[in-house]
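Input/output pair, single chain:
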Amino acid sequence: MKVFCILSDERAFRSKSPAMFSTVMKRVGIKGVYVPFKVKPKQLGPAIQSLRTLNIDGANITVPYKESVIPHLDILSEGANIIGAINTIVRNSDELKGYNTNAIGFMDTLEEAGFEVPDKTALVFGTGGAAKAVVFILNWLRAASIIVTGRSQDEMKKVVSRISGEARNLETISQQPVSANIVINATSVSDPEESPELAEIVNKLEVTDCELMIDLNYGRQNNFWTAKAAEKGIRFMDGLPALAHQASRCFKLWTRLDVEPAEFIKALDEVS
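Output:
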């Protein structure tokens, strides 16, 4: 019996990952369970230690712990070390290794969408772990320019100094047109009730030359990113394809089985 989990705050219980991974495990013949755990910030260290104690085979880490979990791990993959954020933990005996499958999963998503990054311009909303993974891949794929925007000037500077890009505050973004071939929401906000301020900024956003808008969130009924894309006639993708691609990468790290992302999409359709 294999045991996997996802660690987050109360958002762990809204994640589709437990149902998705459980369905895929059953389909490929693995006896296992995947469970959500709500962890308080002060309990993150003991929670990570419990992966060893309870012989958890692997874990996903999502907001708000993709960066703060790193000091509690033994080793990081090369990509995760550069990005400074992880979303996947693999346990090998008592060693816990952190990976970032968000980055490579996002690359897979762009390939699936037929979006070619070289020489294109990008606008990324967010400064957390998901944003860092997105900026890392855009830079690695040789985007011509990457604008990073968020609420905190200090956090924006950390992202661009660590990886790449140009920091530009939200007020500037909302006050003048921005040229970007792709816009990515890597914040945790998509519904106006979650952040009326960001909803208003996006409502005012004037983006030119945009071919694709991606919201890495999913399942929001009232999504202001979708509304903006529809208003401007921009092709839109939510976060489910990216979730399926990164999940496929996670699953291979945990089980060494290569299961196509389409199987994870199928599982998501079945559990929705």
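The two ends are 26 Å apart (CA to CA). The chain has two domains: 2-99, 104-240.
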